[in-house]
Amino acid sequence: MALIPDEVVSEIRDRIDIVAVIGEHIQLKKSGVNWKGLCPFHQEKTPSFHVNPPRHTFYCFGCQKKGDVFAFLMEIGGKSFGEVVRELAGRVGVVIPERPMSPEEQARRSERSRLFDVNALAAAYYRGVLGDGRQGAAGRAYLEGRGIGAEVAAAFQLGLAPDGWDGLLRHFEQRRIPLEPALLLGLVARRSSGSGHYDKFRNRLMCPVILPAGEIAGFSGRTLANDDPETPKYLNSPENPIYKKSQLLFGLHAARPSFAKRGRAILVEGNFDVIALHQAGFTETVAPLGTALTAEQVESLRRLAPSVVLCLDGDKAGRAAALRAIPILVAAGVDARVVALPDKEDPDSFVRSRGAAALEDRVAHAPSAIDHFLEEIWYRSDRSAEARAAALREAAPLIAALGADSIKRDIVIQQFARALDVESRVVRMALAARPAPAAPTPAPAPAAPPPPSAELKVFAILADHPDLVAEADQLGIRSPLTDARLRDMYSRRLSGQSFLDAAPQDISDHVAREVLSGAYAAVPNPRRTLMDAVRMLRSEHMEQELARLHRAAKDANRRGDTTLERELTRKYVETRKHAEELKRRPEEEPR
């Protein structure tokens, strides 16, 4: 991968529409020369994030994040500078001088990028199987039976895992793909007895979980063995460094452009509800990934969509899921409405049996989330005193979700009071009388402190440029490592383990986020970057040692131990001399 000339980077920055790019991630509104919206880097209810098109910059007055379009995409997507530049170059038609990467350069790519590459290779394999005349017949018949056309299937990159034990495994072996990332991603698994591996996904219609920038974070496989009660209907990728299902939404890559156009996001339960509604023209549809709706997913929608329409299954479980989701939507300040489907209907079956116009009519006339909540907990009840008391208990968590918004809180309390035919003070009493937990919850153990950022930086450089590990050891980076967990992790890395596998449990999230971010994959001089980082690490280590010696000498003086004081003072002077020499000779390699 060639070094990208500065003039090419400048040309891309000048050509790209920063408002359009950032607008794909948050909802922006014109405000004078600027555009503003809710900051994607911290939670807020009043927009403080500003984009300035003439300067090609963004700035958040809340968290002080700032930069250009490259910095924004690197921050929000966890990508390297080179990845972002190439992505934007393709959008504006700027040609970057390219040459094939050498084996050494291939090895330098970040572990995160390699995981995305393995998922992309698997997705291409599954698509190939689906398109195969003989192997893909069952998968194509399934899609045809559900009314899914070729265009929508292509947009969601649908594929088929064949009904065999080693199709993907052999595909990886033929291309000399290491099995370690495939194991981490849950694409293959180790046999429980004996040696060898096998495909984790078999005889399943494969739905890739595609990120907004196009990378594939994971998979959800729907079984084609409908007559086998022992086979789970859906099988999903496990949690890993690039797949956090509580933070992701299925279909977001395809739905995001329609949020602003349609003025809403439609939230359904399952993957094929999403795909079926896209097929029917509801291209603003997304779904959680096999779990209950989370605050992180709602926050993503809040930044992107003017409103959210909840359209869950019409059965008892779907109605219960809607009641659980409404407080989360209300707490986030989302303008939410709820579509009530008939019993035993889901969005897919409803739109196929009654047509898109019927669903659009229900969406257009959907009541607010709070009105729907009242309908479910009160108007469907027998309206007895017991039902009224139960409704108040159900309402308390929803009203509590309004937090400090006293005006909206008072309005909602009055709304519930009128509906239940009680005085508003009764609703307030029910809210105040919410039962405490049966037993006090023990305080959680204090979180382990994160490793020093300067030490993590060295590890991040080595993760992106593994060919420098041996040289780093010669530079003696072990001695200035103050964190015992990192010293142990470094020793394991030298023995051949990856940084992620070598990371202790209590810092694995820090390693995945900081070390495997790919931040140094495209630096022009990796060796110099490493030496500068090690030099900075040594300098910080010396400053800490100077402070320790100074404190110890003062303590010896207070105790009247002049011999120890002189020895400590001598060590202090020597250490200070070494620190000053290191600062005066920045061009030399650290010893």
Short recap of the structure:
By secondary structure, this protein is α+β, with helices and mostly antiparallel strands. It is globular. Mean pLDDT is 83; it is low at 436-443 and 586-591.
Overall morphology: globular
Q: What does the average pLDDT come to?
A: 83
- Assign the CATH class of the largest domain: Alpha Beta
| Domain count | 5
CATH fold-level label of the largest domain? DNA primase DNAg catalytic core, N-terminal domain
Structural class: alpha+beta
Identify low-pLDDT runs. Answer: 436-443, 586-591
- Span of the ends, CA to CA: 31 Å
Count, helices: 27
Q: Would you count the extended β strands for me?
A: 15
Radius of gyration: 29 Å
Q: Main sheet?
A: 5 strands, antiparallel
β content, as a range?
5-15%
Strands of the widest sheet, in order across it, are 1-2-3-4-5
Specify the helix fraction band.
40-55%
**Annotated CATH architecture of the largest domain:** Alpha-Beta Complex
Multimeric status of the protein: single chain
Q: Could you state the CATH homologous superfamily of the largest domain?
A: DNA primase, catalytic core, N-terminal domain
Overview of this protein structure:
It is a single chain. This protein is α+β, with helices and mostly antiparallel strands and 591 residues long. It folds into five domains: 6-92, Zinc finger, CHC2-typedomain (DNA Primase, Chain A, Alpha-Beta Complex); 110-243, Alpha-Beta Complex (DNA primase DNAg catalytic core, N-terminal domain); 259-368, 3-Layer(aba) Sandwich (Dna Topoisomerase Vi A Subunit, Chain: A, domain 2); 381-432; 453-584, DNAb Helicase, Chain A. Helices cover 52% and strands 9% of the residues. It is built from 27 helices and 15 strands. The chain has a five-stranded antiparallel sheet with strand order 1-2-3-4-5. The two termini are 31 Å apart. Mean pLDDT is 83; it is low at 436-443 and 586-591.
